[in-house]
Amino acid sequence: MTRVLEQTVPVTFRYAVHFTHGLFQAHNPVLCTALASATGEPAKVLCVLDGGVSQAFPDLGARVAAYFAAHADALHLVAPPLTVPGGERVKQEAGWVRAVQDAIHMHGIDRHSYVVVVGGGAVLDMVGFAAATAHRGVRLVRVPTTVLAQNDSGVGVKNSVNAYGKKNWLGTFAPPYAVLNDLTFLTALEDRDWLGGLAEAVKVALLKDAAFFAWLEEQAGALVARDLEAMEYAVYRCAELHLAHIAGAGDPFELGSSRPLDFGHWAAHKLESLTGYALRHGEAVAVGLALDCTYGALQGMLPETDWQRVLRLLLALKLPVYVPELGTSAQDPADPRGVLSGLNEFREHLGGRLTIPLLTAIGHATEVHAMDADVLRRSVELLRDLHDQPRGASWLPTPTLAS
Amino acid sequence: MTRVLEQTVPVTFRYAVHFTHGLFQAHNPVLCTALASATGEPAKVLCVLDGGVSQAFPDLGARVAAYFAAHADALHLVAPPLTVPGGERVKQEAGWVRAVQDAIHMHGIDRHSYVVVVGGGAVLDMVGFAAATAHRGVRLVRVPTTVLAQNDSGVGVKNSVNAYGKKNWLGTFAPPYAVLNDLTFLTALEDRDWLGGLAEAVKVALLKDAAFFAWLEEQAGALVARDLEAMEYAVYRCAELHLAHIAGAGDPFELGSSRPLDFGHWAAHKLESLTGYALRHGEAVAVGLALDCTYGALQGMLPETDWQRVLRLLLALKLPVYVPELGTSAQDPADPRGVLSGLNEFREHLGGRLTIPLLTAIGHATEVHAMDADVLRRSVELLRDLHDQPRGASWLPTPTLAS
Q1: From the DSSP assignment, how many helices (H) and strands (E) are in chain B?
Q2: Contacts of residue B10 in chain A, CB cutoff 8 Å?
Q3: 3-state class (DSSP) for residue A14
Q4: Which of A251, A321, B70, B144 could form a disulfide with B150 if both were Cys (CB 3.0 to 4.6 A apart)?
């Protein structure tokens, strides 16, 4: 009586990630060539700007307009750029998605037209969600302006806004049409954002590439001193490792339970929320990495010398390894005020079985399906002690497991 | 200076389409086996019901509850089923997507839990959009209850709601986790919905399968007489052809300009809107097929004898080939009150170049990129004359192109 048709739908997404300088200088061909038009007419473009970036580069709007004017044969800017607030509030406040979709509707942006968004990760996430759900997806060109967005979130396949008080509750998987990384934008970043973005580079090096980790150790001083060339390589290599993982790990749309790239992220997401987003994502990831590496070392999974290298690199990059909110993790996993409850929230967001990536060595990871609350509490204490130790500009404490 | 990383993201979606009777009878294993749990815990299920279906089957809620109670070892119904209005209004009215997401949030439905939706195409579309954007996609199990949803929209990879006065403006591409076609639901349909759904079967037969078209000609009488066995095959074969197209045509997420399955749909979408959705989708598709086939015949692309077979089959299935709103197409393509403006709206929704599928023979289609307004006007007149001809219960006029 019952018949079954088994359906298999293969879909292949392709996009290019460009690394350039001065994207909106009239002679720079990157934007022009990335936005092909199939119809012979100039490609229709709606541009959305991050208000924080516009503030750092007050002539940005004018430069964008001038670029489009200089390339009017190939590109048609449908309206003056739309400016939205930068930072997490644009994902937090209702109405911004609708504002972007109003503009998409009003200016007749269709599936073969473009939304070009210039901004940090939060703005890319929000505009990405608006674009992905308009006409079931109009073409999104991301121009990430922070280290974190250029080397991690901006090159990936996700978008989102917050809802029900939860980060990224609403969103889709939707690869961009293209990503244009303009390194010049990084020069305007505050130190904490310049350095914070490197936490994702440390993370992916720890998971995938011991040589890149060693390079980060060597270049830590240059990176802290805001050497743009060093940053350029750090961003490029980190983006490359992320892209290779998304393409090659077999589950880009996260249909399963495993999320190896979310190393250190269960605690990071919770700490962001516990601090009301005062702790920024990269900083929270640094603390999360410190916590999970310490946990692994205490469990005997990660050699102590590797653990010491991780902690010393984070400290050398002036990234936090402890915040007071972590201390409350030394309580009950069921208490939502404590970081330990982040374990369950992480499982809930993914669904299925709890799956946490942990290191076995620098460059090599495995997965566990439970974490011991006592060992996590000891990890937190160890990090608090390390955090409390005096350190100078040129020397760092050497952490030890023995207490 | 400029470097480029080329990214390729291959994603493979898999889902099964089951055909069964009495899905919610306690002994029917289909639902139970389709909803696997990875954790060993019973699978968490939020159930959403179409109010129209609940009205036709007043014991549906109780039967669903009884089914879950009988299978409590494998399935956990998180709450009494949520009932939403049936029909287009559920896509038209703001608030229903949020109502479904409120329930998803409140009951902790995650990416490894299930939303089971029982209803017609509009309800599947709306709930599908809510599910696809919650946690970037929770598992959606569709239980379509109409011919149209079982043989066409419900087995595909799209969801949507209406916005800005436009059908399907908001939505995503998101394959379901499973589709469970329960033929028993069809017995409650009004005649116009029973027959209207066959328009998609005629369409896919015309595009892909002359033998299926001939079968529809033979079985037209049985189908009109509501023979369930004939309908079962019609639904199965139509679903099978749709699934094969989605899987095999190379562009399931419609990244290009070509949409061969949208044969007859440019006019259909416009007629639905012009009639304020009084004309149902299947009926509108029948008129759209009649129009585009007549256009093709007048252009000499489709042999007159094939065209006659198409019109006679539509008439034999008691499907409309003309509605007064089509008459207004005899005006200006720029006038949004006329059906001809549907051509441009169709192009806008897809973006890129206008691409219209047209037949060269029964079972064979090609594409054109423009339609002649004069020939369309003559097509409309021809269909109006045919519509005005008297016809009996047992005989049909033979349409001719000569006028």
Answers
A1: 17, 11
A2: 10-12, 247, 252
A3: strand
A4: B144
- In terms of CA atoms, which chain B residue is nearest residue A41? B352
Domains and CATH numbers, chain A: 16-188 (3.40.50.1970), 192-388 (1.20.1090.10)
Q: At which residue do the structure tokens 């299935």 appear?
A: B317
3-state secondary structure of B99: helix
pLDDT in tens, chain A (403 residues): 679 999 999 999 999 999 999 999 999 999 999 997 666 789 999 999 999 999 999 999 999 999 999 999 999 999 999 999 999 899 999 899 999 999 999 999 999 899 999 999 999 999 999 999 999 999 999 999 999 999 999 999 999 999 998 889 999 999 999 999 999 999 999 999 999 999 999 999 999 999 999 999 999 999 999 999 999 999 999 999 999 999 887 788 887 777 778 899 999 989 998 998 899 999 999 999 999 999 999 999 999 999 999 999 999 999 999 999 988 654 677 777 788 888 888 887 777 788 999 999 999 999 999 999 999 999 999 999 998 887 765 667 778 887 5
| Amino acid (1-letter code) at residue A333 | P
Chain A residues 50-79 with a CB less than 8 Å from chain B: none
Taking the CB of residue A256, how many other CB atoms lie within 10 A of it? Answer: 16
Q: Which residues between 103 and 162 in chain A have a beta carbon less than 8 angstroms from any beta carbon of chain B?
A: 105, 108, 110-113, 129, 132-138, 155, 157-158, 160
| Model pTM score | 0.94
CB contact under 8 A, B4 and A16: yes
Q: What's the ipTM?
A: 0.93
Cβ atoms of B289 and B310 closer than 8 Å: yes
Task: Tell the burial category of A288 from Cβ atoms under 10 Å away from its Cβ (0-12, 13-18, 19+).
Answer: buried
Amino acid symbol at B133: T
The helix or strand, by DSSP H or E, that contains position A78, with its residue range, turns out to be none
